[in-house]
Amino acid sequence: MQRLTGMDASFLYLETPTSHMHVAGTNIYDPSGMAERWDAERVKYEIERRLHLVPPFRRRLAEVPFQLHHPVWIEDPDFDLDWHVRETSLRSGTREELAEVAGDLMGRPMDRSRPLWDMTVIEGLEDDNIAVVTRTHHAAIDGASGMDITVNLLDLGPEEQPVVPPETEWVPDKVPSDVELVGYALQSLGRQPISALKAVRRTTEAALNIRQRNRQPDVTPPPGPFSAPRTPFNGAITARRSFAMADVALDDIKAVRVAVGGTVNDVVLAVCAGALRAYLDEKGALPEDPMVAMCPISVRSEADKSALGNQISSMLVSLASDLADPVARLRVIQESTKHAKEQANAIGADTLMNWAEFAAPAVASTAMRLYSRMKVADRHRPFYNTVISNVPGPQFPLYMSGAKMVAMYPMGPLNDGAGLNMTLISYLGQVHFGLVACPDLLPDVGHLAELIPESLAQLKKAASV
Fold first, then answer.
1. Which residues have a catalytic role annotated?
2. In what order do the strands lie in the sheet with 72-75?
3. Tens-place pLDDT, residues 220-255
4. Helical segments of 112-191, H only
């Protein structure tokens, strides 16, 4: 039995009937050349022999009565692999149909009475490829730990690889009684006052550091919360989800970085900003003020590199969408990310995670559901316009039970007030963009995805690459 950290549990509290807090990925595999049939049964075989390498796959939640404290993970005594791996087939086999199926899966809530993950094997894709859509609740993983889980399920070659056996045999937990859960919660709560005093001291120091830093004449503070302009996709969301994919060459991104400076992530933000600007301009809905992106930041130390769960913070960055010149837009984004990172360092990597420990589960969950039900997001300026998350990926081929993975498209959750998530990952020289949207706010996310390669082409031309 292991208690969720406050940060992990916060993704449970953020969940409402319209905002599902699972992350997902749509991976495409090429099984050509294999003598055996590559299907859901083969995927289950591969997962079963690696379950000890992916601990979240056999853990489920146990909620504390009256929501006195954060839930705990237990090793599920009723674990059933067959329930978690499903299969379906496409009719036309197009990428558009695959995106439709993946979006539908993204819009379904997860069953909290079971381990919070599932896989859907999708056959019938063009070129005889097979897709696998994997969903995992954000309470169990962040982007970095999710990538670690993916790597643990894959091989470096098409031949079946030996799997290191577990050091100890897996033993399911006895489901704790309400009395045991309450007692465990009270023990943890008893230690909170001391932790809270430390958090107050660190937060006060961070606030003074930020105030001093932002008063310096050469510092332009990053965007503040609720400073983002309203766009058509900012408002109260529904439970429906749509999904679209886009691909660009990693070398093109790097070439722009060399020509203009900054980081690969700065160029990625500029590409997304250019696509968003073009999309909204077509709709006659381009705001005068620059749009703002929320960018997750991994705060993992080297010692915690392989740890599971969430170790993340975030920063708000200007997308400079008010500027028509792509290079000028990129330079503003460079400055914005620079100052946002400096401010995040001044706040401290673990400040947000420390405060998350003190969230009252009952209050937080009720508040989020009330916020969603009353559509409060329609009544104030957006906290940010969109999430843009860049997850580093491997530049060498990966295989699952003999089939080569040819593409991987990440899928991030939507929060009420922001009906678009743009997450991307680099793999084998390509940058794969996964765009998740609420179709009731952004009905043609596929068109926005089409504008991403165009945005990069314009940026390359302006940078004389």
1. 138
2. 2-3, 72-75, 59-62
3. 677 888 999 999 999 999 999 999 999 999 999 999
4. 143-152, 178-190
